[in-house]
Specification:
By secondary structure, this protein is α/β, with parallel strands linked by helices. It has one domain: Aldolase class I (TIM Barrel). The chain contains eleven helices and eight strands. It has an eight-stranded parallel barrel, surrounded by seven helices. α3 links the parallel β2 and β3. α2 runs parallel beside α3. It binds 1-deoxy-D-xylulose-5-phosphate and the ligand NCC(=O)COP(=O)(O)O. The site of 1-deoxy-D-xylulose-5-phosphate has 11 residues, from loops. Keywords: Cytoplasm, Pyridoxine biosynthesis, Transferase.
């Protein structure tokens, strides 16, 4: 099986920095530490409301990194302009709702096919690999293929949420386990479909030490993007050991 890449998302280093409005902790410093710890790439999501990463962070990451940057952004003209200025290795198009706490679902591709095909064409022409953050849904994946995306990133949030509910052990624990396993099954099937269409398959959102292995074991998945949990875990064990443990679990699942 091919080696599974780990993309470390450093957005939530910026969340902590922004809580005080100063310069620390610095997301670019975290990205360099992640790079030194063996991350295969760095992911950063420039939200329209700049609630975590800001424009200057993207400048700093582009300057500092020797590993690829996966730039997550909404499909807006402003973001397209920023991406075209920087030409990161990859651009991942994500849905964004102002009032959401985190990215709630996958991009609606099927209904926006024409618009998105035109939107991603200049990004591809500029040499960026275009990825679509997507639910494990056949209709959406086929549409992602038709618009010319090279990659899909499966949203693992529903699986992780169901796993957390099951581990909490409420009175619906049995149903929660069934939901978790059904989400996993859906992702497995859709990873296979995407690969059969020639799409590269990535996955991420909400992954933890407890949830990473079943997803890492899908042979179609080439890259996992993991952030919030790793940044939280780094408070307790340090960023580099936190990343090393994730890497170990991914390798174990892949062996
Ligand atoms: C799209 C995605 O999953 C990531 O960007 C990640 O969750 C960090 O961003 P938010 O926490 O702002 O959703
Ligand atoms: N695209 C998913 C990502 O970058 C990381 O998400 P999370 O681990 O911060 O939830």
């Amino acid at each position: 099986m091919s080696k599974l890449r780990l993309g470390v998302n450093i957005d939530h280093v910026a969340t902590v920095r922004n809580a005080r409005g100063g310069d620390t902790p610095d997301p670019a410093r975290a990205a360099i530490l992640a790079q030194d710890a063996g991350a295969d790439g760095i992911t950063a999501h420039l939200r329209e409301d700049r609630r975590h990463i800001g424009d200057a962070d993207i400048d700093a990451l582009m300057d500092a990194l020797t590993i690829p940057l996966n730039f997550e952004m909404a499909a807006t003209a402003e973001m397209q302009k920023i991406a075209l200025r920087h030409k990161p290795h990859a651009v991942c198009i994500v849905p964004e709702k102002r009032e959401e706490r985190t990215t709630e679902g996958g991009l609606e591709v099927a209904r926006e096919e024409n618009h998105l095909a035109h939107f991603i064409a200049p990004l591809r022409d500029a040499g960026c690999r275009v990825s679509i953050f997507i639910a494990a849904d056949q209709r959406q994946i086929e549409a992602a293929h038709r618009i010319g995306a090279q990659i899909i990133e499966l949203h693992t949030g529903a699986y992780c949420d169901a796993d957390a509910k099951w581990r909490a052990g409420g009175c619906d624990a049995e149903d929660d386990l069934k939901t978790r396993d059904a989400e996993l099954e859906k992702m497995r099937d859709m990873a296979g479909l995407a690969q059969s269409l020639g799409l590269e398959v990535h996955a991420g959102h909400g992954l933890t030490y407890e949830t990473v292995k079943p997803v890492a074991a899908f042979p179609e998945v080439m890259e996992l993007n993991i952030g919030h949990f790793l940044i939280g875990e780094s408070i307790f064990r340090g960023l580099q050991p936190a990343i090393a443990e994730m890497r170990r679990l991914m390798d174990e699942a892949r062996a």
